[in-house]
Write a structure and sequence with these properties.
The chain is α/β, with parallel strands linked by helices. The protein has one domain: Rossmann fold. The chain has ten helices and eight strands. Strands 1-3-6 form a three-stranded parallel β-sheet, sandwiched between helices. Helix 1 packs parallel to helix 3. The longest helix is centred in the N-terminal third of the chain and has 23 residues. About 35% of the residues are buried.
């Protein structure tokens, strides 16, 4: 997840598209792959100008606006663009080659992982506890640009991918997000639950507490999937312990 590329078009966007197509060509050549589960992101859903007001719902029919992102160059714009173009290239390839393709668009993925080195999502999701100003600004950017901070626990995301691999009728895109929150709500929750980290809630006093946008997983749920981690309290426990084990957070 390269947010600081010198040449985003080549280093982020072109690589995402060509790498995805290379993997799919290998699946076709193997002759044994029944379905490809492609991981995209809600970055391919919510990167677009939003109407005024609250309570907007974005689902699988929503696409981030590539031209808008390329013109405004809002933070992380190339990552959003790469996910859109990667998805669309993969879809065209799948149609032409006759391979079954299902795309999963996860929200901010929270929880513990086997990795002992982490670069982006985990430090950002823990930034209100660590006080890392640069990473907090990344959260602020998501909140401002998308109208919410959608989240999913990593265990639910893995279960969703297995579910969609095995569900014969699955097709197209699926958003995977079990919770929408705002930066103000998140800061208030973390300040109360993890008091030892002295979360600065005053910083977000002027930010809206009401959700402007809901990132909907209704399609995934409607086909029979059930999220196990649905509230902030459940979602954050693992990642806080993970951050402590990595030395990102003090005990």
């Amino acid at each position: 997840m390269n947010l600081n590329a010198e040449n985003p078009e080549k280093e982020v966007i072109e690589l995402a598209v060509s790498g995805t197509l290379n993997a799919m060509r290998s699946c076709v050549r193997a002759g044994t792959v029944k379905r490809v589960i492609l991981t995209s992101s809600v970055a391919a859903v919510a990167g677009r100008p939003l109407p005024l007001g609250d309570s907007h719902v974005l689902d699988e029919e929503s696409w981030s606006d590539v031209e808008y992102l390329r013109v405004t160059k809002a933070g992380g714009w190339a990552y959003n663009v790469s996910k859109v173009l990667m998805e669309k290239a993969a879809r065209t390839f799948a149609q032409d080659s006759g391979i079954s393709l299902v795309t999963v668009c996860p929200a901010f993925t929270v929880g513990e992982a086997p990795a002992t080195i982490v670069h982006t999502s985990v430090p950002v999701i823990l930034s209100l506890l660590t006080g890392d100003d640069e990473k907090i600004r990344s959260l602020e950017l998501v909140d401002r640009a998308s109208g919410s901070i959608p989240m999913v626990h990593v265990h639910d995301l893995c279960r969703a991918k297995i579910f969609l691999a095995e569900e014969e009728a699955a097709s197209g895109r699926y958003i995977c997000s079990s919770l929408d929150t705002t930066l103000a709500e998140l800061a208030t929750f973390l300040a109360a639950k993890y008091q030892q980290y002295n979360v600065n809630t005053d910083r977000f006093g002027g930010r809206p507490e009401k959700l402007r946008v809901c990132i909907s997983s209704a399609k995934l749920i409607g086909e029979g999937f059930e999220f196990r981690y649905k509230v902030l309290d459940e979602i954050y426990d693992d990642v806080v312990n993970y951050g402590r084990s990595l030395g990102i957070l003090p005990y």
